[in-house]
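Weekly modeling sync, notes
Attendees: S.R. (lead), two postdocs, one rotation student

Agenda item 3: backlog of single-chain predictions. S.R. asked that every request posted to the team notebook include the full sequence so nobody has to chase files. The rotation student volunteered to paste the first one in as an example of the format we agreed on. Action items at the bottom.

Example entry:
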Amino acid sequence: MNKTIEIIGAPATFGQRKLGVNLGPDAIRYAGLVARISAIGHDVKDSGNIQLPELDLNKFNSEQQGLRNLDEIVETSTRLSDAVSNSIENNHFPLIIGGDHSIAIGSISGISKHYKNLGVIWYDAHGDLNVPEESPSGNIHGMPLRVLVGEGDEQLVNISNYTPKVKPENIVLIGMRDLDVGERRYIKEHNIKTYTMAEVDRYGIKQVMEETIDYLKDKTDGIHLSLDVDALDPVETPGTGTRVLGGLTYRESHFAMELLHNSKLITSMDLVEVNPLIDHNNDTAEQAVGLVGSFFGETLL
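Predicted structure, as returned to the notebook:
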């Protein structure tokens, strides 16, 4: 990779109910993110954290139009979209560190305007494909991918004044093991390429990643990786807010990142849902940094 890797922090906690994920970007930096990427030989620019709405604990989890913290997420998404778009205009590789997964609304909104057919790899335990009327919780971190395909709250759908940001046929879901009824229906109706943990067990992570790359490479002109650390099994990676047992192992995920690096197709990345307040000794942030190292080409020899 000959692009400067630009780190953009988005310390947002508005998309879900647990405090602490807003500390994720700083925990990831503290775990040695910049040094790890620089040691591989890349140029790194840490642009710090974007300015976010004030976190008012008296209003946290407020509902607007049935959605929790909607106004704050609209503002966050707009600012993040602008920052990420600017990064691409400067010919940088944007690495966005969160924050909860609602930040993908902003990051992908800023990215997709620069591509005709953006592909998205959603590496996660959850599909994040809910719409407000079907969401069991009203938490927007369970809705970003559906927003990005053009469905949901009008303000969120139209971040950066265009929609949709991604087509269903350009999405691959990996690591799925907790899908709501509406999400299952949407995946089936739109034939979204999906690898549940059953498929990962059956085929192995090597085949899953190779099929993902083959599926996206010829019909997209850029591929965004959105990596939620809850894709990994919480026995190994406890510092995240929506844990689901039976996930991907740390070693499997390292190999997945190595295969994505070797493909030379990934053009941007999110790393989200690290919550140091419920972690053990910052282990989850350190593991996240290790995965980023593999993604950017780190090898033992």
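Discussion: group reviewed the output briefly. The mean pLDDT is 94.
Action items: rotation student to repeat for the remaining queue; S.R. to check formatting next week.
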